[in-house]
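Working notes for the structural subgroup meeting. M.R. asked for a predicted model of this chain before we commit to crystallization trials. I am recording the input and output together here so anyone reviewing the notebook later can reproduce the run.

Input as submitted:
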Amino acid sequence: MAKGERIHLSPNPASPGAAVAWQIFLSSTIKDLEGYRRSVQEVLLQKAEVVVFLSEDWPGGYDETVRKCKARVEGADGFFLMMGYWYGSIPPGYEKSITHLEFEWAFGKWGQTPFPPIAVFRPKPQSQADQELRTAAEPLIAQGYSQRPQHDTLLQTFQGQVLGSWRTVREFTTLQDLREYSITACLIWKGQTPQAAARGDVAPASSGTRLADEQLGLLGRKKQHDAAEGILAELPADPDVPAACLLVSGSEDAGQRAFLAALLRTQPFKSARPSKPGRPPLDHYDAAVLIQWTAKVLGIAGGAEIKTPEELAGRVAAELKRQPLWFALDQVSRLSGGITVFRDSFWKPFYDRLEELRATQPIPHRLIAVVTEYSGDSTAWEAAVCGPDFDAEPADFSKLLLLPTLTNFTRKDVLLWLGKINLPEDRRAQLADSVLQDDQGKPDGTPLRVVDRLQRQSLWPEDEEND
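Returned structure, recorded in token form:
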């Protein structure tokens, strides 16, 4: 079954003619694109005042699926199509999947208009999203079709129909790309463009500037940054240490990515060869995949040929003679065995071999690794880490160096952070109280929620515009 979803666009109260809300139908296959759909639902709600009603949330009883989907497409004001590599199931009595049918219904309704309210999104070839969606499609194809060529022919026909014309298709490389393109499409269809604002058709955007992750990664994280700075500052004092691996830990809402963005802006990382944080494009992978991924992000030639951590260390040592290196692995729990396997099967043999090579030849530079995890519970991997009190416990660099756990924000955290951007005292207090409460006015210092509330705030009061 395809994923048919309606999006409710809340009208802009400042816009003339905004009395009627938009209704957008979002179509995609389900199981391979579930995480993408949910993320688009979340960002449209938070950033574009758009409510996404997933098909499983549709009201009604034991309805006929195809008829219901067609009625919702025909009753919508616009249409999103998200494409992957799973063609989808074909309803009884039809020759095309629900997703294919939904696109044809939408094109039949709007295809002849000069600027149809239709947006098509597909992964860019060879991108992270492309690899993820190809992997997600494989088990669905094997389960849904007895003959692979039959599926591939149907998918190619559908892709040719959608892509084989002089019409704009948005290619996304990551989930973040998709989220941003979705917001842009909705705002354009609502008429909320800079040109419309200049004409006075809609209210201009808030004067507040969107805060970058590296700015937000400083909020309430002084203890963690100080610990990381202390570890990295002491490395040059110990010439025998070839590498260090920092572990960033907290709950799933602790804001690991924002903290990581801020950490990677510090001098030890800026002075090394550029890299990008990420993870292998698989839900679950083993140490062999991790070795090849690490080689790739470090820019090691012939990484696909490297089979062991010791071989990787040899290649890395050659690079460390020329320049410092770093890599950042997000969501280490996706590695089968998690942190324990990361340390025992990857980091320790890799580190030990680097240490041996450094003892026998001049290697002036070091490698820094950063790993993030999202449980905040060290009971399962205590033996694989040391810290976070490095004054009482000397660092064992063959283990992961655990930074202080990322915890909820306090009022003091927010006030100190706002103080650094030179806001008036009364405005800082007003903002701190606002962002540390949920919609019901109850205290809530959960990092991701506080950050989202900050993103939706104008930092300066509306009546304090620049002269």
